[in-house]
Amino acid sequence: MSLLPDVVPAEVFAQASRFREDLFDCLTARGDELFELVDALLCADGPVTSPVDLTLVAEHRRGHGAMYEALNHGDVDVSRLRQVLAGLPMPRAADGRLVLAVDVSNWLRPDAPTSAERLFCHVYGRSGRSSDQFIPGWPYSFVAALESGRTSWCQLLDAVRLGPEDDVAEVTAAQLRRVVTDLIEMGRWHFGDRDILVVFDAGYDAPRMAHLLDGLPVEVLGRMRSDRVMRRPTPTLKEYALAYPQGGRPPKHGKEFRFANPDTWGEPDAATTQVTDRYGTARAMAWDRLHPRLTTRSAWIDHTRELPIIEGTLIRLQVDRLPGGGDPLPLWLWSSATGLNSKDVDVRWQAFLRRFDIEHLFRLMKQTLGWTRPRLRTPEAGERWTWLIIAAHTQIRLLREAAADLRRPWEKPAEPGRLTPARVRRGFRNLRPHLTCPARAPKPSTPGPGRPLGSKNQRPATRYDVGKTVKRPESIIERNRLRP
After folding, report:
1. CA-CA to 279 of 20 to 30 Å: which in 230, 302, 325, 451?
2. Quick check: pTM over 0.85?
């Protein structure tokens, strides 16, 4: 059973109750049903396999028709809910700074031709195949605040569905700009604090993200492909005159730094070695003020002014072993901060390893909370369901200190404070009576007649194509040809 209220700090229940009240205020249409649907998500026994099964949970007092009506025609004040999430206590890294992770997770819809705005989602290892595939679905960009240490907990802050006309980098930059602004307005970041560290995987171009997020108190940390080539700082006029006494036009970029060619590396500006339990000896080397050589192509095709020089610190991490037993290839990271010492380098690569905690979150959302289970037709209904999942996960996190270990007989016991989100969810039904429930009782009603038995549907649903609807130019000639 869950812990009694007199054992748990009263602030835990008070904070969770305040969030539930704020959540109910954000449900501006059919809020009673949407709120009870969130409670049913948390009180259901076992993983959620279908939203209609949630209407059979005792905490859900309305019928299945009300549930579908709320998902299809309800309304969630997303901007207000984002501020509510930003106002909650944020997890911090070891040095006290906020660390945000950004990643895309796909809601695959391969058999939904009547669902609009589906894109081809890149997946790997689906259905037992070892090769990558492109499956139609709805990709979502998530932003979460990471904790320090080995954990499966993180705080979801935002979710945005990527549409057929969206540029992923630009949408993600606007999403992060909104999240950081909310954190500042809600008092989670103050002037003088350390910059917020934003961690990206290799699917994002870290230098471009740093350029798009210019002006915010953030530092970009992203993984780079091992075949990249960067440039050293531009030499001064004195250095160039000594190297080339015959003269000539001074170069705009320094010498090449090829990731795959150690002869071009030179001596690192910082180096550190640490012994870890999971990875053995971790060796990190860092080179300061490295930047990519940009060209007016692809993402920079619409940049009319002189292309910027985006300098940062390049970090190479090499470990002895991997927890899964694979081949430990070197990991290349790029940070938008310069002048890092050995201690700063350790903080960066350790923060990047914490980025993989968001993968545990995606697994919980899909396998336990049933994020991708509903067969909703419209993308708007999918977005409402996504925010309900975020609200459910937030309540689990707020009550993590109040739950006891309701483990199965074959599961290992866990210490208080080290429970996984799935185990905390098991005790939510016992904790719910101590929380505020603003949803009103349902009114008695009778179901409508529905479509007459044996009649056919006279309004077939529209079929939609899959994929991008906007083709972006890849060269200057193509750009000029597309312009009117």
Report:
1. 230
2. yes
